[in-house]
Amino acid sequence: MIQLAIENLLRQRIGLDPDTLGFATIKRAISQCMADCGLTDITDYLTRLQTSTQELEQLIEMIVVPETWFFRDREPFVFLSRHIMSEWLPSHRDGVLRVLSVPCSTGEEPYSIAIALTEAGLATKNFSIDAVDISKKSLTKARLAVYSRNSFRGNNDEERQKRYFTEVGEQYQLCDSIKNTVNFMHGNLLDPSFLIDKVPYDVIFCRNALIYFDNSAQAKTIQVLECLLVDNGLFFVGHSETQLLTPRFVTVRHPLAFAYQKQEDKNRELKQDVKLRNRKEPIERKRDFQKKLNPKLDVSTSKEFLRKSTEAKTIPLNKEKSKNSTTIATSTLKNAQSLAERGQLHEAINLCESYLNEDPTNADAYLLLGQLCRIQGNEEHAEECFQKAIYLEPNHYEALIHLALLKEHRGDIANAAVIRQRIKRL
User: Do 86 and 254 form a contact (C-beta atoms < 8 A)?
Assistant: First the structure.
C-alpha cells in the first residue's frame, strides 16, 4: 500500500506509468534508496520523500535508467541530414537551426545530431542544440563527453568514430568542436514552466520517453512540445510512440525515421473570418461561412485545436437544425473539450457519446469523439467515428484528414492515398 503511494508521487512528479517498469523494479529502487539514507521503515521513507526534494530526486535517479548510444536507430539521423541539405539549408544560408533533444540522457543523441548536422554541411555557428534531462547524474556524464565502447554499439562507422573521438585508454573523448555545440540543461517535461522562455525550435527529438508516461502525461508532453516546435518543424519520436501523436503532425516519407512535420495552423485565419462575419446579416453570414469553411480548415487534435474547432463551429452546417439544438451541440462539445483539457478523457468521451445517443446526426460530435478516442489510443473506435462523420457530411474536410492519417499510421498507405486524393478535390 505504501509503495502505491510512492508510485503516485512518481506519477505526479515525472508522469511515470508504474506498469511500464513493473512493481518489482520500483520496489528494488525503493529498497536501495532506503538503504542509502539509512531507513528501514517504508512509511518513514514515504514521509522523507514527501518532505525532501533531494530524496525524491534520488529515487528518480534510480528509476530513470539511461539507455542510449550514438546514432541509435540510424535512420532518423540519415533523414535529418537529407532534410537539412535539400530543404532547410538552401533557404537559410545565414540562419541558425535550433534543435531540442529531450530527454537527452547521457548525451549520445544530441552529440549524434551535432555530428549529423556538421556532415550535412552546417557550420557550428549555424546550429544550436539544447539538450534537457531530468537526471543530473546523466547530465554530468553528458557534459564530460567521455564514453565507453558500449556507447557505439550498432555503429560500425569506425572512420566517423576516429574523426570525432580520441581514444583515451578504454574510453573515448569527444572532440571539442562537437562537444561545444550542445547546451545541456536540467528540466522536467511536466514542469509548467518547461522551456517557457525559449524561442521555438526547428527540430525536436523526443524518442522513447512517452512510452513510460501515463495517458495524462503523454497528452501534456505532446502539447508542450507542439508549442515548442515551429510550423513545418520536424518532430522525431520512438517507433512505439507514433500512435500517440496528434494529426497536427504529418508523417514524413522516410522508412524507420519516425519523423513528423508539424502542419501550419490555419484555424487562426478562420476564427478571424468568423468574427468578421458575425457583423453581417444572418443569411449572408451563413452562406459565406459554408462557402469558406472546408477550404480553410487545417487539422490538429491538440487541445488548442479542439478548443478552436468547437468555438469556430457555432453556425450549423445542416440548415434544418434548429437554433436551440445548435446551441446545445456547441455547449456540449465545449464541455467535452474542457474535460479533455483537464485530462478527463473518459468523462469527455462519455459526454460525447451521451449527446450522440440523443442526436446521432451531428458530424462534428463524431469528429470530436474520434479525436478523443485517438488521443486515448483507441484507434479502431476513432476510425469508426471519423467514418460516421464523413457519412453524414461527405465533404467533412477534418474527418477526411484524420481518417487518412489514421490509415497511414496503420500502414494502409493505399487507402490513405485514395482519401488524400479526395481531399485534394475539395
Answer: no
